[in-house]
């Protein structure tokens, strides 16, 4: 059909002529054309469909085009598309109430942002103002966003060309499979990672440190579940030295792990929580900071020195209300937990038993990574050429993957069904059976 074929071609031509892409050398960009989606599937203008095992950038937790979220947005658009953050707006209040209702006790206020990175900026600002201290400790092997402080807090290559913010210190978090601490058990990794953090705190001068900033489960860096005891140990160090604990739940929050917040599974409560992505599945850009009562109280009489034109934008707020209500009514978080425990986790373990290229399988809920290695003994990561081949082979079979470094992140929407998992796993199985290391 020439009409639809030309829409694909036109989309590509316009993109290549005028759109400047993130994190890319522009000449090398070859974007997939996506025209529509529903649930766990997306398609181009030719009707070629893909099973979405990426949730885009791990944000479409509720699946594509959930009718209740689309309706919440269109109803709000018909009523009032935009209004200043200085006004009181019903959708904004209802969104904040629903987020607070899912948070631990002692969190009653939400500052809304445009996305995850500016949630991090504002959490850092709040911690600095609350403590009167400056330094922010975060880990190598992390991603916190692409704005002033958030990108410098980030622990991957993207920080290095962007180091314009001050007061950032990095340390190593636990990661047993590629241990920085010569550990061979989770207990050793946990103990040594905590000792390392305490040494960094003391070495930097504990009275100069405003916050420790951690992804509860580092996502982009490889879905590295913290060993039991690590996060409570960090909490204890923070308490001992008067340091705020910021947990970044932008990727792991709102259902991804099979819980509303990932930290619920790790026996820890932070002082500040950042969120974005899953809160409304990214249908309209938004994010925010959940602020614990003692920090919020600082600004009862003192001006909070921060704001955004679109903080609490009505379309975003309506989408949060629609998404959270649908997630609760339809048991979507429970589905993520069930899929991880009973379907996806066992299926990935079976893949690992079959394919030597899978060095480790890590994850929970619908938040998994396959760590691919050229040699299971040395754990040497597979190279970029192997990953490029895997990407092409998966896409060619209709699976939209999320690949980073030497890993396949298996991160479908929280609504994924048993049948869709089986379909996706069969494709990964077929691709990993190819002679990839030749
Ligand atoms: N924090 C984490 C843990 C993330 O994964 C991301 C994005 O991937 C961000 C922050 C930044 O969010 P955004 O891209 O919405 O600014």
From TrEMBL:
It holds the Pfam family Aminotran_3. It comes from the Bacteria. Keywords: Aminotransferase, Pyridoxal phosphate, Transferase. GO terms for cellular component: cytosol. InterPro entries: Aminotrans_3, Aminotrans_3_PPA_site, PyrdxlP-dep_Trfase, PyrdxlP-dep_Trfase_major, PyrdxlP-dep_Trfase_small. The keyword Transferase applies. Gene3D superfamilies: Aspartate Aminotransferase, domain 1, Type I PLP-dependent aspartate aminotransferase-like (Major domain). GO terms for molecular function: pyridoxal phosphate binding; transaminase activity. Belongs to the class-III pyridoxal-phosphate-dependent aminotransferase family. This is Aspartate aminotransferase family protein.
């Amino acid at each position: 059909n020439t009409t639809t074929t030309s829409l694909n071609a036109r989309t590509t031509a316009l993109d290549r002529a005028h759109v400047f892409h993130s994190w890319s050398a522009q000449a090398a960009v070859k974007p997939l054309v996506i025209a529509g989606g529903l649930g766990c599937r997306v398609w181009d203008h030719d009707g070629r469909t893909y099973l979405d095992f990426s949730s885009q950038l791990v944000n479409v937790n509720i699946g594509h085009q959930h009718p209740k979220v689309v309706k919440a947005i269109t109803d709000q658009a018909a009523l009032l598309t935009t209004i200043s953050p200085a006004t009181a707006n019903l959708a904004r209040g209802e969104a904040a109430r629903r987020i607070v209702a899912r948070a631990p006790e002692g969190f009653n206020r939400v500052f809304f942002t445009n996305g995850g990175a500016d949630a991090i900026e504002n959490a850092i600002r709040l911690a600095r103002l609350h403590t009167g201290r400056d330094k922010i400790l975060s880990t190598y092997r992390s991603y916190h966003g692409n704005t002033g402080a958030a990108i410098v807090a980030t622990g991957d290559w993207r920080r290095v060309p962007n180091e314009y913010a001050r007061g950032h210190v990095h340390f190593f978090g636990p990661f047993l499979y590629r241990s920085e601490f010569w550990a061979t058990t989770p207990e050793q990794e946990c103990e040594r990672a905590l000792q390392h953090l305490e040494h960094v705190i003391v070495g930097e001068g504990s009275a100069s440190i405003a916050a420790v900033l951690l992804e509860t489960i580092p996502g982009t860096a490889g879905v590295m579940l913290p060993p039991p005891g690590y996060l409570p140990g960090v909490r204890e160090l923070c308490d001992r030295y008067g340091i705020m604990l910021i947990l970044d739940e932008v990727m792991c929050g709102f259902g991804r792990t099979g819980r509303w917040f990932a930290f619920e599974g790790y026996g820890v409560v932070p002082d500040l929580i950042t969120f974005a992505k899953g809160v409304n599945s990214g249908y309209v850009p938004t994010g925010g900071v959940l602020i614990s009562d003692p920090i919020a109280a600082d600004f009862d009489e003192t001006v909070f020195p921060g704001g955004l034109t679109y903080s609490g934008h009505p379309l975003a707020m309506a989408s949060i209300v629609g998404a959270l209500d649908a997630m609760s009514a339809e048991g979507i978080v429970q589905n993520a937990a069930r899929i991880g425990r009973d379907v996806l986790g066992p299926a990935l373990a079976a893949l690992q038993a079959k394919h030597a290229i899978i060095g480790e399988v890590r994850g929970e809920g619908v938040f998994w990574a396959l760590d691919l290695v050229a040699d299971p003994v040395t754990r040497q990561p597979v190279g970029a050429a192997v990953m490029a081949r895997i990407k092409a082979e998966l896409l060619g079979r209709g699976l939209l993957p999320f690949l980073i470094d030497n890993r396949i992140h298996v991160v479908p929407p929280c609504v994924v069904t048993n049948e869709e998992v089986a379909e996706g796993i069969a494709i990964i199985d077929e691709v990993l059976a190819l002679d990839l290391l030749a």
